[in-house]
Design a protein that fits this description.
Elements lengths: L2 H18 L3 H11 L5 E4 L5 E4 L5 H20 L11 E6 L3 E3 L5 E8 L13 E4 L1 E5 L3 E6 L6 H19 L1 H7 L13
Parallel strand pairs: 2-3, 3-8
Antiparallel strand pairs: 1-2, 4-5, 5-6, 7-8
């Protein structure tokens, strides 16, 4: 065997083991919401887990790390210290259900059942479009849409959705007051 073939086989086995190590409950929730198959697994340079429908670029992995780093900095500023390791987080990257918002701006989003947003300005006929969504508080897991450009938006989505997870693990009262935006309020929650 050639050296390149051996390296390719080793990488395939490594990423296959990562993909199969997903939490089955969280994977089922990500699949239920998005309808996607998360067959690609990666780890960001700082240790966050990424499960995606297609291979995330280095820029995407770095954007995830930047979003988590920004989240951890603002969490510490607010006196929160639990669940502030990159390895505590799993990011699921699904196919976008839309890539343009109502104004025509690039905005990869996921269609999510309207639930508590039914009848609100966000309701699009039984669903809403979300940039990201928490799919599990424990383990800390988010679902976001794939981006082909404006990769910095990924950092913002990870940081903002991650606020809910930081609050869940550090300040339950504040978490309960801000766990969704159906009663008003927006990101950033943590200043």
């Amino acid at each position: 065997m050639t050296k390149n073939l051996i390296l390719a086989l080793a990488a395939t086995l490594f990423f296959s083991s990562l993909a199969s190590s997903q939490d089955s409950r969280v994977l089922a929730e990500a699949t239920r919401i998005s309808g996607d198959r998360f067959a690609v697994a990666a780890v960001t340079p700082r240790g966050a887990h990424v499960y995606a429908v297609s291979g995330p670029s280095v820029a995407v992995l770095n954007a995830v790390d930047k979003g988590l780093g920004d989240l951890f900095a603002v969490a510490r500023k607010n006196g929160y210290y639990r669940r502030l390791k990159y390895s505590d987080y799993s990011i699921y990257i699904a196919r976008a259900d839309r890539t343009r918002d109502y104004k025509g701006d690039y905005s990869p989003d996921i269609a999510v059942g309207a639930a508590q947003y039914t009848g609100s300005v966000y309701d699009q006929g039984g669903f809403i479009y979300a940039a990201g969504i928490v799919i599990s508080n424990d383990p800390c897991s988010l679902l976001i849409a794939e981006h082909s450009k404006n990769i910095d938006r990924i950092s913002n989505v990870v940081r903002y959705e991650g606020e809910h997870l930081v609050l869940y693990h550090n300040d339950r009262r504040r978490y309960m007051a801000t766990m969704d935006h159906s009663r008003g309020g927006a990101h950033p929650i943590l200043q």
